[in-house]
Design brief:
355 residues, mainly alpha, Heme Oxygenase, Chain A, 2 domains
């Protein structure tokens, strides 16, 4: 995967630094954010996504030692403060009794009234709109389950066993072709989309990156362990019906089982997972860690809120007759192209000096 094209001063700074040799220099003060909600801040969300991806699969042209370099960790910490502050304004944290967490999760999901994206895709979406939706979702689904797996070494006992049971299904029970990320790649190929990891990052807006960044934020910080398991619970508890509709939408468009298998798999699997996640994972975790019970609900509420923001973006743009994707970067604007141009200039100067 190549570094994406910057969208502002912070992402420009991080892309420029990552194309050099790693060093121990600290990050300076991050530029002031855009005057928009943090989940719509293109520069902030892209910068965080780049910093987080250094701990997933990294970038072809970036030295792996940058992952924990002071510049990266310092910049990430500054932006995360703004990210968390924005989330707290959107989703106030509420107190909940540990023994009431599972029911509170069910009540939260029942009260969710996010935009009807799944119904639109089932009944009305054009093939091009469905392709856009799948391209947007590829930012997360090509690494499906990975962010939540950060919780495994931090849990113990029944809660750990519950999470591993869920994740084992996500990873295909040891069969590579059944991994949910691989099933999604098949969906992408059936829609003539590029199934390369991170290939559509340059095309998706900030809120799509925010959906992915939220999981990474909770996953990278042990302090947010409760929020991470709550996020997973909300994810599983709101999955079955939308995925049934996505599959039916593709069938309406004449697509075969290769296209729908990813969604059909989730209809049955997530119906089981939601019970495990709410009771065995989150309920057990809250009883063992009473002070983190509120974090579980906070993580779940944040998950629902980001999905709602993502859905509103899609439907608003489609209602206006616009694409939900960003324009493709101009030729030569990608970091690799800029670096190649700089190397060419350096070589030309050296050749001239030799003469």
């Amino acid at each position: 995967m190549r570094l994406p094209s910057p969208r502002g001063p912070s992402s420009s700074a991080v892309v420029t630094r990552l194309l050099t040799e790693p060093d121990d220099a600290a990050a300076g003060a991050a530029p002031t954010g855009a005057d928009v909600p943090v989940w719509h801040d293109e520069d902030l969300q892209l910068t965080l996504w780049i910093c987080y991806e250094l701990s997933y699969r990294g970038f072809d042209e970036v030295d792996a030692d940058w992952e924990h370099a002071p510049f990266v960790t310092g910049l990430r910490r500054q932006l995360e403060r703004r990210w968390v502050a924005g989330l707290r304004e959107l989703v106030p944290q509420a107190a909940v009794r540990p023994d009431a967490v599972a029911q509170a999760l069910a009540d939260l999901v029942r009260a969710d009234d996010g935009p009807p994206v799944a119904k639109f895709l089932q009944r009305r979406a054009s093939e091009e709109q469905f392709r856009e939706f799948v391209a947007q979702r590829s930012v997360y689904h090509l690494k499906e389950a990975d962010p939540h797996s950060w919780a495994i070494p931090r849990l113990s006992g029944a809660a750990k066993a519950a999470l591993v049971e869920i994740q084992a299904d996500e990873y295909g029970q040891g069969r590579p072709a059944r991994m949910h990320s691989e099933l999604f790649r098949a969906t992408m190929r059936s829609l003539a989309l590029d199934d390369g990891y991170g290939r559509y990052v340059d095309r998706v807006p900030a809120v799509t990156l925010a959906v992915s960044n939220l999981m990474s934020l909770f996953g990278f910080h042990r302090r947010w362990l409760g929020a991470l398991v709550g996020h997973l619970a909300a994810f599983e508890m709101t999955s079955s019906l939308p995925n049934r509709r996505y599959g039916n939408g593709l069938r309406r468009l004449g697509r075969d089982t290769a296209a729908t298998r990813f969604y059909d798999e989730h209809v049955e699997a997530d119906a089981v997972h939601e019970q495990i996640a709410a009771h065995d994972l989150c309920g057990t975790f809250a009883r063992e860690h009473p002070s983190a019970a509120g974090d579980v609900l906070f993580g779940a509420a944040c998950a629902l809120a980001m999905e709602a923001e993502f859905g509103r973006m899609l439907l608003t743009r489609w209602d206006e007759g616009r694409s939900s994707l960003r324009p493709a970067p101009a030729p030569g604007s990608a970091p690799a192209a800029r670096r190649a141009e700089a190397a060419h200039l350096v070589g030309a100067v050296a050749e001239r000096l030799d003469r």
